[in-house]
Specification:
heterotetramer; A alpha+beta; B alpha+beta; C alpha+beta; D alpha+beta; C: alpha+beta; Uridine Diphospho-n-acetylenolpyruvylglucosamine Reductase, domain 2; Uridine Diphospho-n-acetylenolpyruvylglucosamine Reductase, domain 3; Enolase-like, domain 1; five-stranded antiparallel β-sheet; D: alpha+beta; Alpha-D-Glucose-1,6-Bisphosphate, Chain A, domain 4; seven-stranded antiparallel β-sheet; about 50% strand
Chain lengths: ~775, ~150, ~290, ~150
């Protein structure tokens, strides 16, 4: 691969001018004449039978156009689909209606939709709808939900177990029997709320004359939404256009299909008017997916010199009240496959129970499954180090897969593409000045101050692929990506990508790739995304896959363009194509660089088509669907340094060092930004954020007044650095950077805090490590 | 009730319901959609505008309260096609990703720099507490404000 | 996000406002609105009328009244913080206001609004208790002065009558060697005080504490003085040990709030810790 | 939400008991009771207006007394809903003789608060519940002692 001028450059983002001047195209900015506003009446009860819905008062209000209940839509809207049907797990997918019909199963379950002339009136009308419920006992805890006598959500999901997924790789039983050291723990990986700053919403416009549905919505994957909307409404895909240009963050929460988009579409068709729906933050908190929420039982087998020989995990994953679009795959494949992490662990046994409870459905949240695996493993590594009196850095070094062994096939069957784990650890130790820090830790302890140093040496699977693997895992879609490169007669280029960035900066990164490939100015390149009418089918942006998969599709399509352009250039230069070279946007005859045509001249010629080489069609446009041969596996080492105030339990951050290896980097500025944001979210899980329910299923952290999304003052500055181990999986050698920070940081922070508390004999506290939890643990030890 | 509000230098007179929030007045009546809504409890600051020169959350002000006031929104910050130094800082330092919190973040930073032309990192972080960003971890937002501070002092 | 309908009034005098209050029993006064409007947006509060008192002349501003500083009720946090007079004479106010809400809240939120609202976790009630402020209220029967010690009656409840308006807060200027400090443990999400402790400590010529006022907020149903602690300080030299002993008594006789973030037991502990820290800082400042 | 506490009333146990199961007495001591109708044995429908700070609302609901064991103990089931949300709960009230012909009341219960108020007023719900219970007992005490 030719490394040319823009690959590796921190090009300023082309998205920014519109976003810093208030001219972004977010969904709620779109206005259509005659639009009605929809608001959803949601259940305040976690589990109840709907006895009666009286909407007569609401219907009679001035400005109210219609009120729909679940019953009204049974024939007009199919249930919300589940698209990850994991095999061999006795999976049960209960019916999930956009508006609940007989029963509500979580606080926030929608029971009626109001449509009115403006938002204020719609809200007024919600209050006028009278719903009579027969309240049923609720169950929130997924482990207790599986026990006999627990309230049952569905008749056809006995013991609330929607699936039991197994992955038994290697011989754990012998590892356990022969282990010199055995560690067993119950770990909680608590529930989080994604909190994209832009809540979800949609503007659906059905034209009864043409039968076309156009829907602007907050989507990470417009084509997937088009497919699913077609499935639930019965409107053919060819008649649906989904547009999601600027999307205000997603973190996984804008992947699934939800009731709001479905209802807006169905009701627009019913009334023949545009319907806008936008959720409030409170709705976002109760009715947009949550993430994580595992109860994990872990057994770790090791030798006395610190070599891990096997790991066994039994996990109860809380799926919430219904199975969201990708939910079964998250706590199973995306979790279980990664349980040996960066280490050569030969026996991995995983059993996952997917459990339905009276809570908001869970699904993919930044990292999705991999943070749950990494936290578990990195916490256990620290516990093992403690048990053996080893340095946490050294126990990791001891267990790393050596760099000579790549590509490396894990016990769970993944093939790690490339890696040099020790290099990231070494670099991080150097950056943090480890030996000095340990000395300082000793000194401070003598003064009654508690400094802690925490490690996380993670590896992540991203660039999820290939499609055949997706099929084997039961994912109801492919994992490829598409791109069309359209060269216009002037030589300017439009690139249509199936990826759909919502903050990741692909309009810039992809343009850098194309500019390099074609040797044209970056300003001549337009990246188009987020409109199903303009783009071949695309899979969207999630799972740190856009560059590795979507970027590759762009490069491949560009190369096809180049190939055709070379033929045209050769024809114009009257030489054979083999005799033409292409450099810096010029086609020239090898050995005679003055005999040349610019890329723009060739583009013009392709459209004039006055004289084309034989067998070459006019125009200059190519499409490529790229299905990668493998996933990519970024890795790295994060070290967090904290000080804990033992009197109050308050944690302050001293330093945060991240050394990641995401392969080659197209735009370092953007990658750094991804890492920063990722760290912030993972750090927040360790100390600030948690979704708390009471035992009746009421969400106690239902607003930003109780759910602590970190503010600027609550985060440290991040020292980020990189090593570079390219992946052989794609022509860029790039791996993926969207989730590394989140995956790595939660255990790094937790390990730092536990390390700080080690003088008290504390070796574990479940996350989130809130001040009170820390204070209590210290109190208990102080007696 | 009839109100007159000067927004980005232009006086607008409209009849509004008393319950209409300033942010809805800006977005829905004046079509200035650069001011965003990110929460309903006045925490996130996405809706921040300048009212009589001070940063306020336009979701926590009724339009009638702004009667007679001068409002600057993100659309009115750049002058004569020239980005405000804070806008420039956000672009230069990659202070935004999805861009949803950005208008509010920028408006707050403008108020901050009016008060403290040379803020420390700690002051920047403190003064931005009323604005949540979910993408950047604030690292580059701090650098963006530092960039702007330096530029404005020059 | 979409409040219910209400009538909006913008009186130009206090007496007009009082008349409107009397005519509209479900009305609410609107000053900065930063407690009220969020509740209205969620329809937790749906008053039939709002009486906007922010444009009444004379209700806002800060003046030097000799031995006291007088702050008009609709003066914003920001104005108080930036007042040179306040910074010089009552530095605990800027210190406390700096950790209230956020910049935007401080720009619009008013001193009187916050005090009349009496949120159990608001910062200023504790500060006013420690400063020994006096509140002037005007109602249909004229005006009266309410000492701060009688003002905070209960959760969201003050000594104000439904048709009375808080107009002024008068704060005595500290005498002699006085130090003051506000120490807060903020809820990471809301920014409200989980526990906030305010201390105003005056030292005599002998270096011993001649007067002390200590109050906490956030911990219990309403902001309250910690008189046992104060008594334990007066007459003593403010040594680490004395402060420790005194702050241990800060949780005596209190009922503590409990929520998902902090239990009552933890709040009681934090109360002792933060009272101790506020006193230590105040004493140190008094010592100059 | 679990709530529990105790309260001492300066009156003998039987007198306290009589008041605590008397619907008129109960209605008189709950804030803003606008109506109270008996709809069954020891079961009443009521409507009350409660305002705590900015959160003010009218709640329609039912109160049912059960497992009455005079004058020692009874159970109370409450459910009510209004604009800000709903409340459902079951509690046990126990009476014991205290010193100097006082009555020691202990109560414990489990209250579910749902709807908008639950998500928003989280930090104050515990305090509010306790406050309402104390106000109620203090009012009952005043009714008996005429104080």
């Amino acid at each position: 691969m030719a490394v040319t001028k823009l690959f590796g450059a921190s090009v300023k983002r082309r998205e920014d001018p519109r976003l810093i001047t208030g001219r972004g195209n977010f969904t709620d900015h779109i206005k259509l004449p005659g639009t009605l506003f929809m608001a959803l009446k949601r259940s305040p009860h976690a589990h109840a039978r709907i006895v009666r819905i009286d909407a007569s008062k609401a219907r009679a209000m001035p400005g109210v156009v219609a009120v729909y209940t679940g019953q009204d839509l049974v024939d007009k809207l199919a249930p919300v689909p589940c698209a990850w049907l994991i095999p061999d797990s006795d999976l049960k997918v209960p019916s999930y209606r956009a508006l609940a019909v007989d029963k509500v199963r979580y606080v926030g379950d929608a029971v009626a939709a109001v449509v009115a002339e403006n938002r204020y009136v719609a809200e007024d009308a919600l209050e006028a709808i009278d719903v009579e419920y027969e309240v049923l006992p609720a169950i929130v805890d997924q482990e207790r939900a599986t026990q006999d006598g627990a309230p049952q959500l569905y008749d056809d999901v006995p013991n609330n177990i929607a699936f039991h997924w197994k992955l038994h790789a290697g011989d754990f039983d012998s590892a356990w029997n022969q282990a010199e050291v055995k560690l067993s723990r119950r770990l909680i990986n608590h529930r989080l709320i994604p909190t994209a700053m832009e809540p979800r919403g949609a503007l659906a416009h059905y034209n009864p004359g043409t039968g076309d549905l156009t829907i602007w919505c907050t989507s990470q994957n417009p084509h997937v939404h088009r497919l699913l909307l077609s499935a639930v409404t019965g409107i053919p895909e060819t008649r649906i256009r989904v547009i999601a240009t600027d999307v205000g963050g997603g973190f996984g929460s804008k992947i699934p299909m939800y009731s709001g988009e479905m209802l807006a579409s169905a009701i627009s068709r019913d009334l023949g008017r545009p319907i806008k729906w936008f959720e409030s933050r409170r709705e976002n908190y109760v009715a947009t997916i949550h993430g994580r929420d595992h109860i994990q039982y872990v057994d770790l087998a090791a030798t006395r010199d610190g070599k891990v020989t096997g790991i066994r995990v039994k996990s109860y994953a809380n799926l919430g009240a219904y199975l969201s679009t990708a939910s079964p795959g998250v706590p199973t494949w995306l979790f279980g496959l990664m349980l040996s992490g960066a280490y050569a662990i030969l026996a991995v046994h995983v059993d996952v129970f997917g459990v339905v409870t009276n809570t908001t459905p869970t699904d993919a949240y930044r990292g999705a499954g991999r943070p749950e695996a990494t936290y578990l493993l990195e916490r256990m590594m620290d516990l093992l180090a403690r048990e053996l009196g080893m340095d946490p850095a050294e126990i990791r070094r001891k267990n790393f897969i050596p760099k000579e062994q790549f590509p490396y096939t894990t016990a769970t069957g993944l093939q790690y593409d490339s890696g040099n784990y020790e290099a990231t650890l070494d670099r991080a130790l150097e950056l943090v000045n480890y030996q000095q820090l340990r000395r300082e830790q000793e000194e401070l302890r003598a003064q009654g101050r508690y400094l802690g140093i925490g490690f996380s040496t993670y590896v992540e699977v991203c660039g999820l692929a290939p499609s055949a693997a997706a099929g084997a895992m039961g994912f109801q879609g492919g994992l490829w990506e598409s791109a069309t490169v359209r060269v216009h007669p002037s030589g300017k280029v439009s690139v249509f990508t199936g990826s759909n960035p919502h903050g990741q900066g692909e309009e810039t990164t992809f343009a850098q790739l194309v500019a390099d490939e074609l040797g044209v100015p970056i300003d001549d390149i337009e990246i188009v995304h987020g409109d199903t009418e303009m783009i071949p089918f695309g899979m969207g942006t999630y799972g740190s896959r856009s560059l590795a998969v979507g970027g590759t599709a762009v490069i491949m399509a560009t190369r096809k363009v180049k190939e055709k352009a070379t033929k045209i250039a050769a024809h114009l230069l009257e030489v054979a194509p083999e005799d033409v070279a292409f450099e810096n946007g010029r086609f020239f005859v090898k050995g005679a660089p003055d005999r040349a045509k610019t890329f723009q001249e060739v583009a013009g010629a392709a459209y004039l088509a006055w004289s084309m080489p034989e067998g070459v069609t006019p125009g200059l446009e190519e499409t490529h669907f790229h299905d990668p041969i493998n996933n990519t596996f970024p890795f790295g080492c994060h070290i967090c340094v904290v000080e804990v105030d033992a009197d109050t339990g308050k944690v302050s951050f001293r330093k945060y060092v991240a050394v990641d290896d995401v392969g080659n980097v197209v735009n370092p500025m953007i990658v750094d930004g991804q890492v920063h944001g990722g760290i912030a979210q993972g750090l927040a899980q360790a100390v600030y954020e948690y979704a708390a329910y009471d035992e009746n299923g009421q969400l106690l952290t239902a607003t930003l007044m109780d759910y602590a999304v970190p503010k600027a003052s609550m985060l440290p500055r991040f020292d980020v650095d990189r090593t570079v181990t390219p992946t052989p999986v794609n022509p860029m050698g790039a791996k993926g950077a969207g989730e590394t920070g989140t995956i790595a940081s939660t255990p790094a922070v937790a390990n730092a805090i536990i390390d700080a508390l080690s003088p008290f004999g504390i070796d574990h506290i479940d996350i989130p490590l809130t001040p009170e939890r820390i204070w209590r643990a210290v109190q208990e030890r102080r007696g | 009730m009839q109100i007159t509000v000067k927004v980005n230098g232009v006086a607008h007179t409209h009849d509004v319901e008393p319950r209409m929030l300033l942010v809805h007045f800006l977005r829905d009546v004046l079509n200035l959609t650069g001011t965003h809504i990110g929460c309903d409890t006045s925490q996130c600051g996405a809706c921040t505008v300048l009212m009589n020169g001070k940063a306020v959350k336009s979701c926590t002000v009724f339009a009638v309260q702004a009667d007679g006031a001068e409002i600057t929104t993100i659309e009115g910050l750049a002058r004569d096609g020239q980005l405000h130094p804070v806008q420039e800082g956000f672009w230069e330092m990659h202070g935004l990703q999805c861009g949803y919190c950005t208008p509010g973040m920028i408006m707050t930073a403008v108020d901050l720099l009016q008060r403290i032309p040379n803020p420390t990192e700690e002051q920047i972080r403190h003064y931005l507490e009323g604005n949540l960003c979910r993408c950047t971890g604030y690292h580059n937002i701090v650098r963006a404000v530092q960039y702007a501070a330096e530029k404005m002092r020059a | 996000m979409y409040p219910s309908t209400f009538e909006y009034y913008r009186p130009s005098s206090v007496s007009e406002a009082i008349q409107l209050l009397s005519q509209n029993p479900d009305a609410k006064l609107l000053a900065g609105g930063h407690s009220l409007i969020p509740a209205m947006k969620l329809r937790l509060s749906s008053p039939t009328a709002l009486i906007d008192i922010t444009r009444i002349p004379g209700l806002s501003g800060i003046r030097d009244a000799g031995d006291r500083v007088v702050i008009g009720a609709t003066t914003t946090y920001d104005e108080v913080m930036r007042s040179e007079l306040i910074q010089r004479t009552l530095p605990i106010l800027p210190e406390a206001i700096d950790v209230i809400g956020d910049l935007q809240v401080r720009n619009l939120g008013t001193i009187g609004g916050s005090l009349a609202h009496a949120d159990p976790a608001a910062d200023l009630p504790a500060v006013m208790l420690a400063l020994g402020a006096e509140f002037k209220a005007i109602g249909p029967n004229g005006e009266r002065t309410i000492p701060v010690d009688q003002f905070f009656v209960d959760l969201f409840t003050t000594a104000l009558q439904p048709n009375e308006i808080l107009t002024e807060i008068a704060i005595p200027k500290p005498a002699g060697r006085t130090g003051m400090a506000y120490e807060k443990f903020a809820n990471p999400a809301s920014g409200y005080a989980v526990v906030g402790a305010a201390a105003v400590v005056t030292l005599g010529n002998d270096g011993r504490v001649s007067a002390a006022r200590v109050a906490v907020t956030g911990a219990g149903p309403y902001a309250a003085r910690r008189t046992e602690t104060e008594q334990a300080l007066v007459g003593q030299a403010p040594t680490t040990e004395v402060i420790k002993q005194a702050s241990q008594r800060a949780s005596e006789g209190m009922t503590f709030n409990s929520d998902v973030f902090a239990s009552d037991e933890y709040r009681a502990h934090l109360t002792r810790v933060f009272v101790g820290r506020a006193i230590a800082k105040a004493a140190q400042r008094a010592q100059g | 939400m679990k709530i529990s506490g105790s309260y001492t009333i300066r009156a003998p146990r039987q007198a306290v008991w009589d008041r605590l199961i008397d619907p008129q007495a109960i209605a008189g001591c709950l804030p803003g009771v606008e109506k109270l109708n008996q709809v069954g044995e020891d079961e009443y429908e009521m409507s009350m207006t409660v305002g705590i700070g900015p959160v003010r609302g009218t709640y329609e609901g039912k109160v049912r007394l059960a497992n009455m064991n005079p004058p020692d103990e009874y159970q109370m089931h409450v459910e009510g809903s209004g604009r800000p949300g709903f409340v459902r709960g079951t509690g046990t009230v126990r009476l014991a003789d205290g010193p100097d012909s006082t009555t020691q009341i202990t109560y414990e219960g489990d209250v579910e608060v749902g709807g908008p108020v639950a998500g928003v007023a989280q930090r104050m719900l515990g305090g509010v519940a306790k406050r309402l219970v104390e106000q109620f007992f203090s009012c009952i005490e005043k009714q008996i002692t005429g104080g």
